[in-house]
Amino acid sequence: MTFQFRPAIREATPLLIGLTGPSGSGKTKSALRLAEGIQKVRGGKIAALDTEANRMLHYADEHAFIHCPFTPPFGSDRYAEALEAAAEAAAGGVVIVDSMSHEHEGAGGYLEFHDTEVARLIKDGGFRNEYAASIPAWNKPVARRRNLINRLLQINCAFVFCFRAKEKLKIVKGKDPVQLGWQAIAGEEFVFEMTVRCLLLPGAGGVPDWSEDSFKLGVPKRANSHVQMFKAGQPLDEDTGAQLALWSAGAVPDWAEEIKKASTPEGLATVWGRIPVGDKKKYESAKDDRKKALTTPPAGGAL
Questions:
Q1: β-pairing, 158-163 with 94-98?
Q2: Which of 4, 187, 221, 296 is the most buried (most CB within 10 A)?
Q3: Domains, the chain, ordered by start
Q4: What is the rounded average pLDDT for all residues in the chain?
């Protein structure tokens, strides 16, 4: 077998965005705003899978999307089918899943499937009790979730997943419980696949928590190249979604052209804030020239 190597270049990668937070943190609204920005780059439609009793329809007057109620059972296989159907309906655009947590602890979901397998193994598999059957009972749920992940990674579509969250504790024998903060109600292996993960705290209004403490707890995730895409202290918005979609497509904006197109000092500042820190130096001259053009009164009169 021959192995061939070539210089690494940025290519298109999957875009899987995870929004983790309790009720009232702004997950659904943030998902729709991000999706609208992604759609501007990818095209297609915004397709929403709604496990939350049609709560996404509360935003139907504010955002344009196609909607599908998703009711039990919430098994991994059924989620895989729903994601593929939603991606087809979105025509390569973006799919919102609100919420993905039902796959873990909803009716017919991962945990309930395990309980069903425990009962089956005791009845038909020769296991004496729940303790003996508990570990082998994970085999089928784990395999089906792995199949869900594998199918997801083959879909040509962007995804925004909303995860419910709850405060968790780690019990350590002989010690006080360790606070783990707000954690996604989902399988760790599924959450791991997210390209970007945002933690929305109670009452956050869609503003992600990028604090050092939250990173230590392993909830948020963003690459260095994503840092400039998130405005400090500001809610997730359409511009963030568009920038993530451009990054996912392997596209690098023509920053010189973006600077030239800025029509106001405020617009120029926005463009400048989006340019990665390591690239700013080579555009400083273009920025200064554009700023001067925008702030210098025309000959013979004031602006």
A1: parallel
A2: 187
A3: 16-251 (3.40.50), 254-296 (no CATH)
A4: 92
Report whether pLDDT(278) > 80.
Answer: no
Q: In terms of DSSP bridges, do strands 94-98 and 66-69 run parallel, antiparallel, or are they unpaired?
A: unpaired
Tens digits of residue pLDDT in 232-260: 899 999 999 999 998 998 877 788 988 99
Q: Which residue has the higher pLDDT, 282 or 85?
A: 85
Tens of pLDDT, residue by residue over 85-109, are 999 999 999 999 999 999 999 999 9
pTM of the model: 0.82
Question: b vs e for 101-135, b when ≥16 Cβ sit within 10 Å of the residue's Cβ?
Answer: bbbbebebbbebbbeebbeebbeeeebeeeeebee
